[in-house]
Write a structure and sequence with these properties.
Helix content is 28%, strand content 36%. The chain is α+β, with helices and mostly antiparallel strands. The protein is globular, with a radius of gyration of 15 Å. InterPro entries: Ntn_hydrolases_N (IPR029055), Proteasome_sua/b (IPR001353).
Length: 148
């Protein structure tokens, strides 16, 4: 049962995530808020859905960010890269997950700011890899168990 919320405020962005993972009758604690390592910028990702899809997508994104020859100047470009890696994982693992009765249902909230962004940014990424950006009339995103 995941609950994550990202909020854009005047001073920047706020990210909150629970740490509980339920595996059948077992409950364990795991980070759901990941700091993304790129240059000296502060970036984060939070996910809901299958932990294996999250870990693999973020690993691939981390490698891509490390191998980047051209500097990335805008957050939406990093969000596009994450979407590409999410689609890559779907291509690699989607059929096997479906055979096992598991849904490819990873949603993400990605936030932070790069030097060309006018202010800190907040994005919601769907399981298909497409995204929307936070807007002033709705300055937050929630993923996971939204009944809380």
């Amino acid at each position: 049962m995941t609950f994550c919320v990202g909020i854009r405020v005047e001073e920047g962005v706020v990210a909150l995530a629970d740490t509980q993972i339920v595996l059948g009758s077992e409950r364990i604690s795991k980070q759901k808020l990941a700091a993304l390592d790129y240059a000296d910028d502060s970036l984060f990702a939070m996910t809901s859905g299958l932990r294996s899809v999250r870990d693999k997508s973020l690993t691939y994104l981390g490698e891509q960010l490390q191998d980047q020859s051209e500097p990335i100047d805008r957050m939406y470009k990093i969000v596009n890269m994450f979407g590409d890696q999410l689609r890559r994982v779907r291509e690699e693992d989607g059929a096997a997950l479906a055979e096992a009765g598991l849904r490819f249902n990873t949603n993400a909230i990605i936030g932070g700011g790069l030097h060309a962004d006018p202010s800190p940014q907040l994005f919601y990424v769907y399981p298909q890899g497409n995204w929307i950006e936070c807007a002033p009339d709705s300055p937050y995103f929630i993923i996971g168990r939204t009944t809380y």
